[in-house]
Every structure is written in C-alpha cells, then in structure tokens.
Design brief:
By secondary structure, the chain is an alpha+beta fold. It is built from 3 helices and 5 strands.
Length: 117
Amino acid sequence: MEKHAVIGDVRGKGLFCGAELVADRKTKEPLDEKHVQAVVAECLGQGVIIGATNRSLHDGLNNTLCLPPALIATPEDIDRITDAIGNYVGAPSAEKPNPMEPVVALDVAVVQTRRRR
C-alpha cells in the first residue's frame, strides 16, 4: 500500500476484501468513478468478475473495488483476480482500452497477502 499512492485503504474480512482507489491519499479524495469502472470492465474482459461499491453506501462513493471470491477459491484463483487487476492498472495508458489519468498501479501484493491471513 505504501508503494502506490492510488491505494487509499485495503480492508475486509477473510477472503472478501476491498481496495479503495483514491486520487490523493493524503486527502482521501476518491478516484473518479469512471476509472474504477474501467478496472471492473477490464477484469470482466479477462474473465474475472469483481465489483465496485455503489452510491447506496453511507458516503455515496463508488471508488472501492470489491473482491468477493468463492469460498472454494484456490490460491491460483485469488492470483488470477489480483493479476487481472494488476494487468490493467499497471499497464501504460496507451495500452488500455479506456486510458486512465493518472495511470494507477494497484499494489496487488497487499490484496494477495490478505488471502494468506
């Protein structure tokens, strides 16, 4: 998390976790919803289903990736989820179908570590 300013927080319980994407870690200004949705769409294109929070939550924001693997998920399944996210957010913007400004890099090691706890 310390490595990438786009990660505001990673939280969850068990295998269910979320990665909050922020434009500015100090102010916790949320990353624009269109960028978060671009990550979700790209993962779906890679055959990985993740979600994002919706505005029905108390703060009305939609900037947290939701990673809800099945209870029978294997370590390889979890790696596939984090790799799909990392493939998109870590790629140069020219390679993305919906370029994100600024280019963000998700610290997938944080998410992968959560599954080992």
